[in-house]
Please model this.
Amino acid sequence: MKRFIIILCYFLIIVIHGFTQNKIPVNVENSSSKPFSNSRFIVVDSVRFHFRTWNDQLSAPKGKVLLIHGFIGSTFCWRENIDPLVREGYEVVAVDLPGAGYSDRNLRVNQSQSNRARLLWDFLSLIDRSDSSRWNIVGHSMGGGTAEAMSLLKPGRINSLTIVDGMVFIRNKNLTGSFVLMTRMKEYNKVLVALTKKQVIDFDKLQRALKKLYGYLPDSIIVEGYLKPLRIKGSAESILNIFANAKEIRHLHSDSLSELHILVVWGKKDRTIRLVSAKRFINTFPAIDLKIIAGARHSPMETHPAIFNCYLLEFLNKNN
Model:
């Protein structure tokens, strides 16, 4: 049994490393216990989403930007990037994916990239109402794969795509492997849930995990910003559900991306999703604008916000 626990811990460590016209419709919930002053909640296909908006009162924004976080992240991940977008006149929406942040911990939600993309388009349709202007989608890490899937599902609704150290793909495939199989087995899942609570939802452990993503030890404010939503009941189960319940609902191929404006930003020292993944991806699409941030690891929008924001705004202004 001891050997088995050690093996499970090993797999869990791999997972941790891998990783004035208001357009808001009337069915949005404005919770009395909002995590942020601009927090909003909306139900999409029985899933309660938490999201935040900036400049949604503008009658003619410069463009619309959707920010999608990565694994065990939330809208908090974009704290260094929102103000420059707002000052530039963009309408900004940051969303918590199902099972993350302050969105629902519903284990029935299919966590495949194609299904998350479908849910987010339904989410944006409720926000847009009669507004038909296109979106600029920005996704980090796991959220980068979701952003790519959104672009492939509905390219006509996309103005530009930005992927930050993302889980890019040529073809989307169902998750496989020993760890994935264990998350789907009831007896192993219980052990993995306990390990996740111990190895992820813990201040010291999370701080050390973030150090590997940042390249330096983050302060307590940053760790608590990540940790606060992870303390919500059901978070450990939801983290594992990303692997246990992730069957693709539609087969996607990246061919149609050649018709879009695409920016790829990568940390040169990323050890979670290495730069070779970006280079392999852009070799298929030479027109993609690749920006490599020297010294950055997996989260350049947090650790190197000045240069990241410069790249993003330059790209958005050029294409809006």
